[in-house]
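Sequence in, structure out.
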Amino acid sequence: MSTKQSDSLKIITIVAMMFLYAMISFVTNLAAPVGKIWGASFDDPAQAERMGMLGNLFNFLAYLIMGIPAGNFLSKHGYKKTALTAIFLGFIGIAIQWTSGVCDSFFVYLFGALICGFCVCMLNTVVNPMLNLLGGGGNRGNQLNMVGGTLNSLSGALTPMLVGAIIGESLAGKQIDDVNIVLYIAMAVFALIYLIIRLTPLQEPAGAGQNIVYERSPWAFRHLRLGVIAIFFYVGVEVGIPATLISYLTPKVGFAVAGLIAGRYWILMLIGRFIGSTIGGKVSSRTMVICVSTVAIALMAGAMCIGDSIMAKTIVQGSVMEVPLASTLLVLCGLCTSVMWTSIFNMATEGLGKYTAKASGIFMMMVVGGGIVPYIQSVVAAHNCLISYIVPVAGVAFILFYALWGSKNVNKDIKID
């Protein structure tokens, strides 16, 4: 293959991974608002809050089940087949969620959320190492993931806004059938992307789909072990901040407006990732995480301290309204969390060589934190929404520790080629 053909194939592969990045966010962020529709059917407010987050919990529980199998599947079958299998599972998962409305079964919905979780776990296992390897690792690999993360954030911002616009101000009396249009769109997009990926030649990284001899376990790398703990907390923080923000604002401004305000968190993530993608070639992942972690802790601590005592004006749907300043501080956390995922992944898999695919599966396994941490936060939020942010503060504190001390590769003696 000529250099020109190789470069063209590389560009096509990168573009395909960018679209998959957007689908990951769409499916993931569909779980919380749809789950709240089911949760609203329970009379007790505290129970409604917990049950509403169960779909999100099942979506992320799939990572714990599928993480290592996804990494092994990727090592054996390569990136393209893994991506196609994941997309197929996503279509099935969304179809099952639609079926839950037909048979009026909360448990069928949870099963659909679990299958969708299998999908996004496998997609994450593909896109993160693929872009990191295509970029040559280091700052350039992180930069490509930042670009993908920008599309991921755009999709994440639009999802709660779309569901909120369809549902309206109140969840009372709403059924999952009321958001069928969103599920139809999701299934159509999955079907389209499946065909595109199936018909598009993708550049497989060297060694993908081949039998590789591993002298050691990926767990032997200390920076990977600490990195998977960091990602456990990160995904919980990323999901928990806006999900609990909706619960905090809904009694004050209604569900639709709360969804629009929470959507700004994802818009700021988009902006943050765009900025990160422009400077990612020059600023290290470690420096980024140290800076944003420190700011995120300050913002959440500030929100908890001021509570509802200070109000601020904001424009929503062309109207000026007052909301607690605390909500603005929490929305601003989107700028901080925007660069954490790709930076932590980059630090945790840097220097792993042939262990990268298996390490990616282990890494994805711990994304289950996106279900566990927000669920723990929701239990506290049932009593006090703002105080519950002590949970993500603790998570970000560990991420700061990882960036400062835990991300150094101290196992360079292990053979990686």
